[in-house]
Amino acid sequence: MRDSPILYSFRRCPYAMRARMALLTSGKIYTHREVLLRDKPAAMLAASPKGTVPILVLADGTAIDESVDIMHWALSQHDPEDWLPRADTELVAKFDSVFKHHLDRYKYAGRYEVDPLHHRAAGLAMLAELDERLKEQDYLDGATRGFSDIALFPFVRQFAGVDAQWFAVNAPERVCEWLAILVASELFEQAMVKIAPWSEGQS
Q1: Does residue 192 form part of some domain?
Q2: Would 152 be classed as within a structural domain?
Q3: What is the rounded CA–CA span in Å between residue 56 and residue 65?
Q4: pTM for the predicted model, two decimal places
């Protein structure tokens, strides 16, 4: 039995981003296995047949294959920034479902055969809700970054990247400032370090 958990991850996946950031914040030692989604290793599929990242395999073999659950597990081990008591679980769930729905159809309109501008407008309206909250406090969970910030911002970042020029002109000011701070953070920089893909037979 291994002493530390194994994280199967993909650098650009927003779900994996937030899991990595929570693990890094917790200080929990883990083994990172970067995967290519077009060539998923057998060990990853054995751990979780659904085949999506991130997957955290604990020392006893238990697999956690939902990113929010990985965040909760990591912070239950150690929560130095006090994220868990301040987390807005309803907000996270809303963005994971409704905002993600609009994001996918804005970014991949051809795949869904929909009008991307309709979904861009719907996503922008949800960002206006965040802006109202951020006018009252620096972060979504209060004066310092917390669970909700880290859970949401990879998807807001993805939304912004679809048309960066449009976003810079039209996105709410406080959301832009909040996003810029999180993207420039040392934590995000650490989470985005490039790691060579793992293959079967490696430790």
Answers
A1: no
A2: yes
A3: 6
A4: 0.96
